[in-house]
C-alpha cells in the first residue's frame, strides 16, 4: 500500500502520545531522516525519545523542543568502515556481535524496563533489530521505518566471514518479525522478515534557505560552479589538490578535520552545517551513495557524481533509483583519488534529474505512526503475500548462497525485483550455433577456430550477438539494462575482427599445496570456464568511454593506446564492472614499470583490483617477452568459474586473458610457457603466492583427462585418461577460499622453513662439518651421497618418506617464531613470501605434508591404470582421505569441508551392509584449503550421482547452504585455441 499526502502538517491527536524512536549506528543518513519524522510528531504535540549514538546537534539543530529527549545508547553498529569507501565485512559482524549479541539478554532487560518507565505508546526503529524484540517483550507495538534491513546487508558479509556467523542474520530477521509492519522508503532492498509493508514518499529534510541566500552568505556569485564534496565525515586523510577542479569551480567540503589544509578553491564547511541548504546552492554533488544523499539529491534535483563503495548492499538499489531518474553518474575511484574530476563535473552539469514524486515522506510516516500509537490497525492492500515473501526470501537466499563473479542465469525478476520501479532485465542466455543470429538478424562469421560443440562458448557468442544487435539498433542505452552489458555494448567496433579465447577452472584431484614443493600433481580441467573477447584498434579509432577520452584530452598528447575492460558478473561481486587505463601507465621511461609498482597501482582502488588479473598479463608480456603495445585494447571478460571456491577462478581469467592478447597480437606462446607467464601475474602483480599447477591445468589440460605435472618447476609429463568406471565431482563447501589469505601463505612459509632446516641438518652430518654428533661409520651406513643431495635439496618432495622418518622427522620442531627462525637461518629462500618476525609458524606438519603427498600422488597415478575392482577404488579413496587429514594437520582444514568429507565417508562405509550400494570411495579438500571445494571420487554410475545429490541435501539441512556441484570436464586454453570472428554482412535465409 502506498500512502501520500498533500497536507503540510500532521493533525494533532486528541491524546498525548509517547514514542521511543531507535536509530541505528550506521552513519548520519538514518539520523537525518529520523529528524524529519520526529519533527512532525513533536509538532503534533507528542513526546519523542530518540535512542541513538549520533551527535546531539544532528537532532537539536532541526528540532528545538522540550518534547525531544535524546538518550545516548548504541544498540547496533551498522557497518564498520575500513575507509570512506570500503566496509570491513568481518569487523562489521564482529562489532555487531560485541554490541548486540553478547549483551543481548542485558539489552532486552534494560530496554524493556526503560520502555515501561517512559510509558511508551509505540516503538519505532530505523532500523535497530533488538528494538523490535524489546518492544514485544514489553508488550508494546513496534514499527520499522527504513529502506533496508540489516539481515540483507549482513548476508553478503557472512560469505566472507564463514557460516558460523550466519546465526547473526537469522537472529536479526527473527527480531524484525516482531515488528507490526514496515514503513518502506523508496530505493528499498528485499526485506522478507517483515509481515506487512506500507510505502511512503521520500523522506527528506526541508530547506531553510534559498540558493541565492546561501551563495550570498558564502560570498559566491552565480557565475561560479559549486560542487559539494560529501563522503560522510570520512575523507580527513585524503589530499585534495587545486588542480582537481576545472577553472571556474569551487568545492565545498563536508566533514573535513579541523587541521586539514585545503587548497584555495576548496572551502571547508562547518561540522554542523545544514547540508540540504548547501546542496540547493550547488551545481552537483560528489560523494558516496546513501539514503540521505540520494533522496535529497533527487528531491532538490541536484546531479550526483557517486563513487562506488565496497560491500554495502544497499548501494545498488539506491543507484538504480538515482540513475532511473537521470540524476547520477559514476566516477571511477582511481579518478577520484588522482584528481581526474573535470569530465565528471562537466557531465554532471548536463544531467537533468527528473524525479517529480512527493517528498513529504516524513509527514506521511509521522501520521501513520501517530495513528498506530493511538490504536489504529493498518492493513495494507498489498501485504507481503506468500508469493511476495517467497520472492524476497529467494533474493536473500541468492545473497547468502551466490558464487561471486559467476555469470549465472538468475531468475528474471531477481535482477531488480527489489526496486519499486519495476526494473526487469533478463540475463538468461540460450546456446546458439557456430553462426549466431542476433535479434537484429545480424550474425558473426567464424574466420578461425572451432567452438568444439561447447555450450558455454556458443552462449558467449550469443551474448556478443545480442550486444551487437543492441548497438546497431541505434537506440539509446536503457538505464534499466545491466550495467556491465551497457558498457560492453560500447566496447567494440562491430565492423572489425574480434578474437575470443576460453580457459577452464580446475579440480585439484591430487597434489594441491605440494606443487610449490615440487610434487607430482594430478589436475582435471572442469566444465566451467572463462571467456575473453578482445579487439585491437588504432588509438585514433578506439571507442573510448567519456572519462577515458577526457583524461586523454587533458594530457594534450593526442590519441594514445588505452586498455578498456568490461567484466561480467561484477554486479554479483561488489566490483566495478569496468576498468580502463592508459597503457603508458605501464611504462617508466623506456622500460616497463616494476611488478611491485604495478601491484601498488592496482591496490589503490579495491573495487577495481580485480583488473590486476587481466591487465597484469600485458605487463608480464612486456617485461618477460619485450612486447610493446601500440594499439588500443578492448576486452570483455565473462567467467563462469566461481570465485573463492578453490577451483582456480583467477588462473582461468589469467590464462584466457593472456591467450586472447597473444592471439590478437599474433604472439606465439606454447601452452606451458603461457601458464608460467600467468603464474608471474598472480605471484608478482596480484601478490598471491600460488604454485603453477592452476595455470598449467587451465592452459594445458584436456577434457576427461588428468594433467600429470611434475612441479620442478613445471614439467608436464602427459595426460592420463580418467578410466570409464571412475568419476570425479567437486562439492562447494560455501566457505570462501583465497590463496592470498594468511593461512595459505603461513603454511607455505612453514614448508620452506622445514626445507631449510632439513638442508641444514643434512649439511651438518657431512664429514667436513664441525658437528661431531655422528661418527664416520654412521655416515657410511647412511650414505654420504644422500646427505650431500639432501643438503642441497631444491624441492622438498625429492625427499622420500622413509628418509624423512628415519633421519629428520624428530628434528623438525612443531612450530617456530619468525624472529627465532631468521636469527638461526637468515632466510627461508622463497621469493614470493615474507616471514613476519612476530608470527609463529607451524613447521612440522607443513614440511611433512608435501613429502607424503608426492608419494600419494605417484601411488594414485599407478592405481588409476590397475585392474578394475572395488579394491582399486577403495585404495584411491584412501589416498584422498589421507590427503584431506594432512591438510587439516597443516591448519588448512575447515569445519565445512570436514563435514562434506564425513558425509562421503558415511556413504562409503554404508556398503559394508549393502555392497551393491557403495559407489563413493573417497574425498579431500582441494587447492589452497581453508574452505573451498571438496573433490569426491566414486564409481561412474547413476547411483553415485544420486548419492551426491543426497550429500547436497544433508549438507543443506545441517548448514542452511545448498552446495554447488562441479561435474564434467572441458578442454584447456591450448586445446581450444582461439576464435576469430567478424560480423557477417549477409542475412540468414529463412
From TrEMBL:
Pfam families (UniProt xref): GalKase_gal_bdg, GHMP_kinases_N
GO molecular function: ATP binding
GO BP terms in the entry: carbohydrate metabolic process
The Galactokinase N-terminal domain, residue ranges: 491-535
Domain of life of the organism encoding this protein: Eukaryota
InterPro entries documented for this protein: Galk_glycosyltransferase (IPR012369), GalKase_N (IPR019539), GHMP_kinase_C_sf (IPR036554), GHMP_kinase_L-arabinokinase (IPR053205), GHMP_kinase_N_dom (IPR006204), Ribosomal_Su5_D2-typ_SF (IPR020568), Ribsml_uS5_D2-typ_fold_subgr (IPR014721)
Protein name from the UniProt record: L-arabinokinase
